Amino acid sequence: MSLSTVAVGLALALDAAVGEPPTRVHPVAWFGRLVGHLDRAWARPRAAGALGTVALPLAAAVAVGGVVAAAGAWRPLAGAVAGGVALFLTTSLRRLLSVAREVTALTGTDIDAARSELRALAGRDASALSADEVRSAVVESVAENLADGLVAPLGAFAALAVAVGVVVPSGAESVPAGVDPAVAALAFGAAGAAWVKAVNTMDSMLGYRSKPVGWAPARLDDVVMWVPARVGAVLIAAATLSPGSLVAARRWLDRVPSPNSGWPMGTIAAAIDVRLVKPGAYDINADAPLPTVEDAERAVRRVGLAGLATYVGAGLATYVGAGVFTWA
Q: Among candidates 147, 150, 139, which has minimal Cα distance to 284?
């Protein structure tokens, strides 16, 4: 089994066992504090945002990749553990599903508490939302965050780990003595996951029309999320046994301002036949009813299944990729 596959398995195990570490010790929260320094008035806000968009995710990638490489240089298994921890910290599934279930349950018992807790899932004003609209936001958020918070970083990790593992042996004469190609693949994969998570974090904090400094993070996030959003939609369609939902989602893409989030949201809306609405922004599958508690619970379960498939897919990709460059 490759080091990268071990890292994926460890990340899944940690997510299942821990969910997420407390905010005060979470490196993503630390990164968020750095991003917060960009959120101010600048003479040239777009230029400041562009500079930060280049520098901050690159710094995060170099830091994470460097730690994994150093651990792997000491002991390959230590590198796999470091890579698994890095992947765990840049992905999220259990916490997403847990909060979604909690908010869904609260919509039937305490709507004010449901509106308050929704802030952990969706960045919108929930003060006037009905119970149905809160559940709509839950379904939208779990579908979109599957792509943002899991498919994107895991996909970057697997793609870079496999790519580096294939390329490095092909130029073995140029590889410095003592460099383990499997460790190099692991380190680049972890760096890629950290870079993607950093880009997404900057977009979530700054990527609003009211913040000119967020123009560059938002545009870069649009590019980075193009593939993960569509892969996420495919995974949702598979988890709901509804391949036709992908076709239906295409009909509603022009109703969603984002070039990417319409795919997973539209797919889940079609698959469980519910209306998803964000007042003043979009209305997906408008002829269907808004989600009931049972609808939202079903959506959460299916996204959970799609998330598990994401881990399995990343693990298989790194395992098969390791075989390819071992046999080469």
A: 139
